[in-house]
Design goal:
about 575 residues, alpha+beta, 6-stranded mixed β-sheet, about 30% helix
């Protein structure tokens, strides 16, 4: 094989002419070997050589990395689309996956439009749960209510409407109308009436008021307008539709449950009265009528005394006179009186005068003036009188002070004592020496006295003593013995008039309960009274208050107007009474 100076070119080599070594211009010597020399043709610059297939190398690591990146980008993009776009969230909702509130509201509406009612409700409920507070919650809740109604869940739909007008749009008439529609369809008339009232109050829309007026019975009316009234009244209640009326005379209680069925006029006496009433038709109840009356019955004029007040040298007689009021004169001047006016005038003219001579304010128990004159007592006296009409109203008090300059009996005082002892002075030992040894002797507690007390009993009565720095001193005594002599020489067996003549008696008539005041001197704290205990028994008490504030009371017990027992008692002032 011929030898060639230059080996064949490799694919990565380019042609380059051989260097010359020797004289320039010399041609290479060609050896005649019988073969043609190989032609070396230069490769155009910049053109790659063609590779043989079995020589191509592939970078698999790089390839798989690129593929992984592409997949990851695709996954992230899909996630972002589903997670952060409205369209993606709607797809998630359709797939039954968690989605935001907007998507759930849209998906729920799709289901509702397609007739999948239960699934639509569930989607709406989920949407509301996810975002219960949002700017368009009013519209969204209406969607939910529509779905509830379509699914036949009317109670849930009503609850949604109630929430809307309670918490979101209380002045929106349309929401109230939706609830009205549901209540009307269910025949819930009383609830509907309450809703109409609320709707009118919140919206001011007169439509609701008119609807309510047409629905309910008319409110009852009263025969007398509210306000002050001068006389007692019989109030009539009326129902325009002649329905049953229930009323109550108080601001307490519920109507009609706590009311009384009206069957006859309501009589109102003096005072302040509240009349509340409703008309009832089946299960419908009218609005409540409430009227307040203030009834002030007319008072009579105070009596008039015929004798001017002042001192007099001789005993005087006195009359008490009546003065007509303006009410009486006006009614008497009318030519024709109604039955009610006749009754009023009768009560105005039915006047009773109560009076006293001892300065005490008359009461309904005091003596009644009969129209005849009476004598003023000797000494100072104060006449007081009041008039009471047929309504029971009491006039102002008439008061007149007189002084008949004549001697009169004195009051019972601390100078009046039993002959054998002195109250609050006589000691126990001295008493026993006078009255003898008692049948019994024991320690007692007595609410009328403070401190340590003893009770001594005898066949004729008893005596009570309390401990002082001088020993036991008598403070109470009672006897039925004719041998004992009381103050002013009073004894058992004396008559009532014998006793009352010994001390001052102002000559007053008996009170309505049979008792009689003998005298009453508040300034000097001296009092005397006869008490009527039974048809045959009376008691006369003479009392005064000592300087040490102890009350001393002399008592006479009478049977058939004669003394059968007498005694004296000392007590604390705050315990003293009749």
């Amino acid at each position: 094989m011929p030898t060639v100076d230059n080996p064949p070119l490799t694919p990565n080599e380019s042609y380059a002419p051989p260097r010359r070594t020797g004289s320039e211009g010399l041609r290479p010597v060609s050896m005649n070997t019988g073969m043609q020399p190989r032609q070396i043709v230069p490769r155009p610059t910049g053109r790659p050589l063609k590779r043989h297939p079995h020589r191509l190398m592939i970078n698999w690591a790089l390839l798989w990395t690129v593929l992984a990146v592409v997949v990851m980008v695709a996954v992230i993009g899909a996630y972002a689309f589903l997670r952060f776009t409205d369209a993606g969230q709607l797809i998630m909702a359709r797939m039954g996956r968690d989605a935001n509130a907007n998507a759930m509201w849209k998906y729920g509406q799709e289901l509702l439009d397609q007739g999948y009612l239960d699934r639509s409700v569930a989607a709406f409920e989920k949407a509301y749960e996810l975002e219960p507070e949002r700017e368009d919650i009013y519209d969204r809740l209406l969607q939910l209510a529509d779905a509830y109604e379509a699914a036949g869940r009317l109670g849930d739909a009503e609850a949604v409407y109630v929430k809307i007008y309670t918490d979101i749009a209380e002045d929106d008439p349309e929401v109230y109308r939706q609830v009205m529609r549901l209540m009307e369809g269910q025949g819930r008339q009383m609830e509907l009436a309450a809703l109409l009232k609320l709707a009118y109050e919140k919206t001011g829309d007169s439509y609701f008021r008119r609807e309510r007026d047409q629905l309910l019975p008319s409110m009852p009316t009263a025969s007398k307008e509210a306000g002050p009234i001068k006389y007692e009244q019989d109030i009539q209640l009326l129902s325009a539709e002649d329905y049953d009326i229930y009323y109550i005379l108080s601001d307490e209680g519920e109507l009609p449950e706590d009311g009384t069925l009206y069957t006859e006029p309501i009589h109102l006496g003096e005072g302040s009265h509240v009349v509340r009433a409703v008309a009832v038709s089946s299960d419908l109840i009218s609005d409540e009528m409430r009227i307040q009356y203030s009834i002030s019955l007319p008072r009579p004029a105070a009596p008039y005394a015929s004798l001017a007040p002042g001192p007099y040298e001789k005993r005087q007689r006195i009359w008490l006179k009546l003065i007509k009021t303006e009410d009486q004169e006006l009614l008497e001047q009318k030519r024709l009186l109604s039955d009610q006016e006749e009754e009023i005038l009768k009560k105005l003219n039915d006047i009773t005068i109560y009076y006293t001579l001892d300065s005490q304010t008359p009461t309904s128990n005091s003596p009644i003036y009969t129209g005849d004159p009476f004598l003023l007592p000797l000494g100072p006296s104060t006449v007081k009188a009041v008039a009471v009409n047929g309504f029971g109203k009491v006039s102002n008090v008439m008061e007149r002070t007189y002084d008949i300059k004549k001697p009169f009996k004195l009051y019972f005082s601390d100078s009046d004592n039993f002959s054998d002892f002195t109250i609050m002075v006589t000691e126990k030992d001295a008493f026993i020496r006078k009255f003898g040894t008692p049948n019994s002797e024991r320690e007692i507690e007595d609410e009328n006295m403070e401190g340590q007390c003893q009770l001594l009993t005898y066949a004729w009565g008893e005596a009570r003593f309390f401990m002082t720095d001088r020993g036991y001193v008598i403070y109470a005594f009672e006897t039925n013995s004719q041998n004992v002599v009381g103050p002013e020489k009073t004894k058992i067996g004396m008559s009532e008039t014998d006793v009352t003549s010994l001390f001052r008696d102002m000559g007053m008539e008996h009170n309505q309960d049979g008792s009689r005041s003998l005298y009453y001197d508040k300034q000097n704290r001296k009092y005397a009274m006869m008490y009527h205990l039974s048809p045959t028994n009376d008691r006369i008490d003479y009392s005064y208050v000592r300087q040490d504030s102890l009350v001393v009371t002399l008592s006479y017990y009478l049977q058939d107007h004669r003394v059968i027992r007498m005694g004296i008692q000392t007590s604390l002032e705050n315990q003293w009474g009749t």
